[in-house]
Specification:
The complex is a heterodimer of chains A (330) and B (431). Chain A is α/β, with parallel strands linked by helices and 330 residues long. Helix content of chain A is 37%, strand content 14%. In chain A, the strands form two sheets. Chain A has a five-stranded parallel sheet with strand order 7-6-5-8-9. Chain A is globular, with a radius of gyration of 20 Å. The chains are: A alpha/beta (330), B alpha/beta (431).
């Protein structure tokens, strides 16, 4: 459903995993590997984005994703500016387009956007002359998270093809889950979704996953256990009866994990609710948990994405009147 | 002085079943005479003769569900601009919805609309008034008094009356006056936060959905309440196979019920949302292809009585937002006729049966004098060529709003002359 041309390398934007091909993803991951090595050196800085401007525009609070993008941009030599839109600015929805027009006039080269509403980043990208990276839009996509998860798995296990990955938790509201499901399917992994029915979309099977409501069964013989965050306001009886009931049936603990393969890895996009979706000791188990590694991979993947997008030859405004995107008539 | 003869026409009157070549004579704003043999013996001695060139001459269309921004949101659409758009679409009578600011829930406001319409509009405008005060679903509005002031039916517009006890009493009370209760059938709790049809597309886009069951449950409930009270009930727009099936059962049972479908629910399906196209955000939402087909079948077998435009003007700013925040609704007055005619061209309905759903059926339900070709009826007429091909062009619209998802769509059939009270209110400049 994506505009395919927008996703032909070198990409103009990175709005989602949807539309990427296996070679595209492999190219990003290969380049990320190089940046992992670079980031482990004393001198981490390169100048390939020297003179370029990157704006991080966050309509939702975020610490790790924003910091990760900021670090990635700075290590490549870009000038990075962070903008956090206040809640009141979001409510006045028209400011999204206005904000885009304002920022566009400043000639940034890359815009990194997080927004609480699905599709908002794509809408914004239509108004920008520069590259736009989706840092999370509503319940839709969070492509760099899926890429960093894939990089983490590939570095640990050598490949993605043929692995069985269980994604557990609030899949209904999760952009991380959607991006991961798509990426893993593209790369030939088997995906299981484990959650109570209230936290699963009704048509989940249409995304090419096997659905489980029982965690012990769902975790049997999996290679990867990917936990998702469950927000507190969803545990007060609206979607599940209580925190303790959720933890009892769907929290990851040693007993449930024992059903997975002995060397199975534990992942979490963070921030974690210890004792809600994951046992605290498991989260810190250096033999099983790769949660900190995910954070490291995040910086490298974002450097790779910034690098690849910057290879697009021109940041000049398009010729003629800018096209009439709008959510509207085609 | 005001006699006009329309000759060389294909007369179609769904009310009587007439479909034949012939002529029609209007006099003082009324239809004076018509038929295949009228003027057969020669050119009439009247003030004016209009040669219809073999085009269809039928009653002017009646649109039962039109949202206008007046009063309160005149920047979106006024009664005058909606009226011009209607005339260009072959519609001679629009029924405006009461969810304005202020809400039309009082006799004075019903009269205000009538007065504004009389002074500013070129087509007939009748108000539907609120079922409950402020559309809040709690206290019954003054249904009887507003009916006396010529509110043609009652509706809470785009809201459902959630409380079954309130709805029961409304239907019960309204039955004493034989009033029509026109209900938007959507269970609000199930539809809460939803912005498009529930399903695979909503899931992939990460958008909250409105399940089809929200409509089915409400229609099923309403039918049981009609059974209980005997009130006249009209489902404002049906979009799902299950609700249409429920409606068919209600009719088979002999309940005093009727239903309409919005043009968008048979002209498009949920695929039109694509990548967050807010111009495809509608109420009821665009549904699956199976549901769309069920709407077509429901129109063909008579379960659905009426086609309405659900004309809902929105300014560009309120549509150019992330999908969840964007306003709901599309304009439809100028596209209802050609899009409905697609059902005729693809063989789903005969021309007269199709026109009945926009002329005689709404007139019967609302108790209007128009909607038919008969001596003494108002000379509200549409002359159109059902075959002329053209592309929908938003730049040619008379509506103040441009929120249409149909821009560029190839269609067939367009109004040539629209006539209200014997006077031409729209004339196609192309020919």
């Amino acid at each position: 459903m994506s505009d395919i041309s927008a996703n032909q390398p070198p990409f103009r934007h990175l709005l989602g995993i949807e539309g990427l091909s296996a070679p595209d993803i492999t190219e990003i991951l290969d380049l990320s590997d190089e940046y992992v090595a670079q980031n482990r050196q004393v001198d981490k800085k390169r100048s390939i984005l020297g003179g370029r401007t990157q704006i991080n525009l966050f309509f939702e609070t975020s610490t790790r994703t924003r910091t990760s993008f900021e670090l990635a941009g700075k290590r490549l030599g870009a000038d990075v500016i962070n903008m956090t839109a206040t809640a009141s600015a979001i409510k006045k929805g028209e400011t999204l387009i206005d904000t885009a027009a304002t920022l566009n006039a400043m000639h940034p080269d890359t815009l990194v956007v997080r927004h609480p509403h699905s599709g908002a980043v794509a809408l914004l990208s239509q108004k920008m002359d520069c590259s736009v990276i989706n840092a999370g839009d509503g319940s839709h996509e969070h492509p760099t998270q899926a890429l960093l998860d894939a990089l983490t798995i590939r570095r640990r296990l050598g490949h993605l093809h043929g692995l069985t990955v269980a994604i557990c938790g609030d899949i209904l509201h999760s952009r991380v889950a959607r991006s991961n499901i798509m990426l893993l399917n593209i790369m030939g992994a088997h995906v299981r979704a484990i959650a109570p029915p209230t936290l699963l979309p009704g048509q989940m099977d249409r995304m090419g996953v096997d659905v489980y409501h029982n965690m012990e069964k769902g975790l049997r013989d999996v290679d990867i256990v990917m936990m998702l965050r469950l927000q507190n306001e969803r545990m007060n009886g609206a979607y599940v009866p209580s925190t303790r009931e959720y933890y009892h049936f769907f929290g990851l603990d040693q007993a449930k994990l024992s059903k997975a393969k002995p060397e199975a890895l534990i992942m979490h996009p963070g921030p974690m609710n210890r004792g809600v979706e994951i046992d605290s000791e498991l989260a810190d188990d250096i033999n099983r948990s790769v949660i900190r590694e995910q954070v490291e991979m995040g910086v490298a993947v974002r450097m790779a994405v910034l690098d690849l997008l910057s290879r697009r030859p021109s940041n000049l405004p398009p010729i003629g009147p800018s096209g009439g995107p709008d959510g509207g008539a085609s | 002085m005001s006699d006009i003869a329309y000759i060389n026409a294909r007369l179609i009157d769904p009310a009587s079943g007439l479909d034949s070549p012939g002529a029609l004579l209007t006099k003082d704003g009324q239809i004076a005479d018509l038929g295949p043999d009228l003027f057969a013996s020669g050119t009439p001695e009247v003030a004016a003769v209009v040669d219809c060139g073999g085009r269809v001459l039928c009653p002017g269309l009646i649109d039962m569900r039109v949202f206008v921004g007046e009063p309160g949101a005149e920047h979106k659409e006024t009664l005058a601009s909606a009226s011009d758009a209607a005339a260009a679409g072959g519609i001679t009578c629009i029924i405006v919805q009461p969810n304005t600011d202020p809400v039309i829930d009082d006799v004075a406001l019903v009269e205000y609309i009538k007065r504004q319409a009389r002074d500013k509009a070129s087509v007939r405008i009748h108000p539907m008034a609120a079922i409950t005060r402020g559309l809040e679903g709690q206290q019954m509005a003054e249904l009887g008094l507003m009916a006396e002031a010529d509110a043609v039916a009652f509706t809470d517009a785009d809201r459902a009356v959630a409380d079954a006890q309130v709805m029961r009493r409304v239907l019960s009370y309204a039955s004493a006056f034989n009033l029509l209760i026109c209900h938007y059938p959507e269970e609000p709790a199930l539809a809460r936060n939803g912005v498009m049809n529930s399903g695979e597309i909503a899931m992939r886009l990460g958008l909250p959905g409105i399940p089809t069951q929200a409509e089915t449950i409400m229609v099923e409930r309403d039918l049981r309440l009609v059974e209980m009270t005997g009130g006249r009930y009209h489902a404002a727009c049906l979009s799902t196979a299950q609700a249409i099936e429920a409606m068919a059962r209600g009719k088979a049972q002999g309940l005093p019920v009727s239903a309409a479908a919005a043009v968008h629910n048979f002209a498009m399906n949920e695929e039109a949302v694509g990548q967050y196209r807010s111009f495809a955000k509608t109420a009821p939402p665009l549904r699956s292809e199976a549901d769309r087909q069920a709407v077509v079948d429901g129109l063909a077998d008579g379960t659905i009585d009426v086609i309405c435009s659900c004309h809902d003007p929105q300014d560009v700013e309120s549509k150019r937002l992330p999908f969840e925040l964007a306003a709901t609704g599309i304009i439809g007055l100028e596209t209802m006729l050609p899009l409905a005619l697609q059902l005729y061209h693809n063989g789903a309905l005969g021309l007269s049966d199709l026109l009945a759903k926009m002329t005689s059926r709404p007139a019967e339900l609302l108790g209007l004098r128009g909607g038919k070709l008969a001596p003494g009826a108002p000379a509200d007429l549409l002359i159109f060529d059902p075959n002329i091909p053209w592309r929908i062009d938003e730049d040619g619209f008379h509506s103040k709003a441009k929120n249409t998802p149909y821009h560029g769509r190839p269609v067939q059939g367009r109004a040539w002359r629209t006539i209200v009270d014997g006077k031409v209110v729209y004339s196609d400049s192309a020919k």
